[in-house]
Amino acid sequence: MTFLLIIRKVKYTVGRQDIQAMILLQTYLLRGKKMKWAGEKVRDLAKAQGFSIASLAESIGVSRKAVNDWTRGQIPKGNHLMALARLLNINPEELFNIGEKFDISIPVHRTRGNAKVTEDRSQEAFNLAKDYYSFFLNDSALPVVPVIRETDKSDENARNIARILRKMTSVQNGEPLKKKHVFSLLKDLGIKIVIKKFPESLKVYAFYTRILAHRVVFVNRDTNFLDLNFALLHEAVHAVRDETFKGRLYDKKEEDFCDLVANYVQFPDEYVQFVANNISDLRVGQAINILKSFAEKNGHALHGIVKRIYNQFPSKEPINPHGADTNLKKEFYSIGDYLMAFENAEEYVTYLKEISPLFLESLVKQVENLTYRRLGELLDIESSLDAADLKDEFLKLRKEM
User: Fold this and answer.
1) Which phi and psi angles does 80 have, rounded to 5°?
2) Pairing of β 214-220 and β 191-196
3) What is the pTM of this model?
């Protein structure tokens, strides 16, 4: 198993870095990857950052005709490409569509219950991600992101990956991951969490996709907090393995492997043993009550821990926690209700910073160019008044950056 740090971009500010960027593009060509110039991105990025064709041409030192030619498909010369990237504050790679590397990867996800992954459901997830394309187009991806290279889907490798991911958190040995640990882990993995109302037909808690060079996990705002940790961990495993499995359609073996890793990350053997000891030799009703107390304390569903117990100790008499799980979830917020329980914009921003600090950072960077309506769409907030209050709060944060 190899644990890599993948460099996503180079900061283009001085001559030496320009050379590095040119080498990056030349490397793609030498590897035989087909590169298609995406001139429309020049036009869209320039407009978003307040440049006219004339002002863009003047800043780079070329004619307006040259810039117009770029937007229509002509690739700029090397020095002009670098100047353009610097001016728009992007990686020049982002101005190309490279081979089969789509700007938005095929969303990978597992469904709820017995629902099957279909082309229609995958398309719905893709369309939802597509609504955020222009937003992430104007945002810089993180320079370094962790990637775990491992194709063997054995139990041993699942445990090894789980150990790596747990070490990235502040959780104590033997303790289950709680919300704060999971949110922190996804931040360290370079994942931006977006809370959105999903179409009911999508039948999914969350899904991972890559938009340009951004790792994004979309979470259904109706997802209960007790289901949230496992859903996020499952998608986080997809993210760190995405360099290997990008562009692949639904793969049940891969989904099962991500489940296995997520279970080991959330519930270490010591915790499973401790819970199992506490319910040993109890009647089913008593055992369910004990399990509920652990679930309430640590913020996880009953189903996951019961599954781990009987995988680790197959000789134990099985318990069906479904009814108790359903009743327990009624006592907890959905992630959407949790966010919308804020009393003012400042409180909402505090909640968002806890859940998705990287997405908040992206919003703050672009807030000056976001209308109330667009901000409301990105945050899935219907009230323009709430969006206006939030924009004011984001502008305050912008001044502090």
Assistant:
1) -70, -35
2) parallel
3) 0.76
Which helix (H) or strand (E) segment is 29 a member of? helix 15-30
> 24 falls in which pLDDT band (50, 70, 90)?
very low
Helix H or strand E segment including 97: strand 96-98
Q: Write down the number of H helices and E strands in the chain.
A: 20, 7
For the chain, what is the largest distance between any 2 Cα atoms, rounded to a whole number of angstroms? 82
CA distance 30 to 251: 31
Provide the 10 A C-beta neighbour count for residue 3: 13
Q: Which CATH class is domain 10-98?
A: mainly alpha
Q: Scan for tokens 């030192």, then name that residue.
A: 61
Structure tokens at 30: 């030498």
**DSSP string of 343-369?**
SSHHHHHHHHHHH-HHHHHHHHHHGGG
Query: Which residue, among 9, 39, 36, has the nearest Cα to 21 in the 3D structure?
Result: 9
- Do 329 and 226 form a contact (C-beta atoms < 8 A)? yes
Higher pLDDT among residues 29 and 196, named by residue:
196
CB 241 within 8 A of CB 111: no
Question: DSSP readout, 218-241?
Answer: EEETT-BHHHHHHHHHHHHHHHHH
CA nearest to 148, candidates 136, 156, 157, 139 = 157
Radius of gyration of the chain (CA): 23
